[in-house]
Specification:
Helix content is 28%, strand content 28%. β1 (93-102) and β2 form a beta hairpin. The chain contains seven helices and eleven strands. It has two domains: 2-83, 434 Repressor (Amino-terminal Domain) (Orthogonal Bundle), CATH 1.10.260; 93-227, Umud Fragment, subunit A (Ribbon), CATH 2.10.109.10. Strands 1, 2, 3, 4, 5, 6, 7, 8, 9, 10 and 11 form an eleven-stranded mixed β-sheet that branches. The model is unreliable at 1-18, 104-108 and 111-115 (pLDDT under 50).
């Protein structure tokens, strides 16, 4: 009876092996990268299969250096893989292709350099055609203040009926890229462009128009912009 009590106590008091928390993220990353098994991943990446299997099973921890190796192979962030910090992967980025705003005379401008100097994270639902404009000045106060980011899809297609009545990004046949409310003109192919604080422009011929997909306020825009370099 005494031996039985000792056996029961030993069974109850001995904790089960603890699976390392990074193991689940490692398995998740491996599957997302397209490797069906741990052995397949190890073989493709030139790792010791037994050592990798131990890490993914959670029987042993992997250090920061090894986490960097795994993260690079599976295209995830090392911080996430090692410690669960932040998102699993970096967001895609959109180029900031120019500035839209007001010059000293009050006219809206669009300016762009030879190549994007800044990048901004893609907003939800964006595609690889997403681009952004940075607002300069107060010509769109209330819609997009000085320093805000305006995103749109750079598809270069003609205006569509669902754009009428909405603020969109347009390019005129005079090479101006503007942010305006799009209204129907006096005849097909012509449009009126309504501003927030300037006279409307009537019967303008447009090369293309694009829906605005996101507007990021100035404070947040300053935090998320990165140099294209």
């Amino acid at each position: 009876m005494s031996a039985m009590r000792v056996l029961i106590a030993s069974t109850v008091d001995t904790p089960a092996p603890c699976r390392r928390p990074g193991a689940a993220r490692l398995r998740q990353a491996r599957i997302a990268a397209g490797f069906e098994t741990a052995e397949q991943a190890a073989g493709a990446c030139g790792w010791d299969a037994a050592a990798y299997a131990v890490h993914e099973a959670g029987a042993a921890s992997f250090d920061w250096r090894r986490a960097k190796v795994y993260a690079s192979a599976f295209r995830v962030r090392t911080e996430w893989l090692y410690a669960g910090a932040g998102p699993a992967s970096d967001p895609g980025f959109a180029p900031v292709i120019g500035r839209v705003g007001a010059d000293p005379s009050g006219a809206l401008l669009f300016a762009t350099g030879q190549s994007p100097g800044e990048l901004a994270p893609l907003p939800p639902g964006a595609t690889d055609r997403a681009v952004a404009l940075r607002v300069a000045g107060e010509s769109m106060r209330g819609l997009a203040d000085d320093g805000a980011l305006i995103y749109f899809e750079d598809q270069r297609t003609p205006p569509t009926p669902d754009m009428l009545g909405h603020v969109v990004v347009v390019e005129t046949d005079g090479d101006e890229v503007l942010v305006k409310r799009l209204l129907r003109g006096s005849r097909p192919g012509l449009y009126d462009l309504e501003s927030l604080d300037a006279p409307a422009r009537s019967d303008v011929r447009l090369r293309w128009a694009a829906h605005i997909t996101a507007i990021i306020p100035p404070f947040q825009a300053r935090r998320i912009l990165v140099s294209a370099a």
